[in-house]
Structure to design on (104 residues):
């Protein structure tokens, strides 16, 4: 989520398409909903009564989110950003993911 919020969303937010801008606003709100849910799940024991329900809601939310990104956001980025910008963005994302993974 951090990589998307820090790098990908700002890169496509500037695309001059209201549809893309609306989508960025929507997925940003989805992150705001999912982050606390993820924190709740992390703080729970898998044996607690609501654990499975929370995991199911989280899974469904993420699946829908990924579907929107892959079906709408990535194609918009490919359509509206130059190959050079896409390559640079890809390198930035890979570098940030590596840094975050190493930190964990």
């Amino acid at each position: 989520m951090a990589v998307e919020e820090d790098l990908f969303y700002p890169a496509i937010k500037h695309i001059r398409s209201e549809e893309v801008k609306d989508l960025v606003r929507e997925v940003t709100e989805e992150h705001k909903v999912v982050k606390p849910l993820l924190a709740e799940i992390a703080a729970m024991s898998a044996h607690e009564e609501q654990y499975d329900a929370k995991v199911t809601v989280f899974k469904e939310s993420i699946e829908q989110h990924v579907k929107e990104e892959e079906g709408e956001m990535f194609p918009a980025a490919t359509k509206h950003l130059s190959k050079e910008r896409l390559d640079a963005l890809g390198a930035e994302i890979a570098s940030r993911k590596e840094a975050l993974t190493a930190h964990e």
Q: What stands out?
A: The mean pLDDT is 92. The chain has one domain: 2-103. The two ends are 14 Å apart (CA to CA). The longest helix spans residues 51-80.
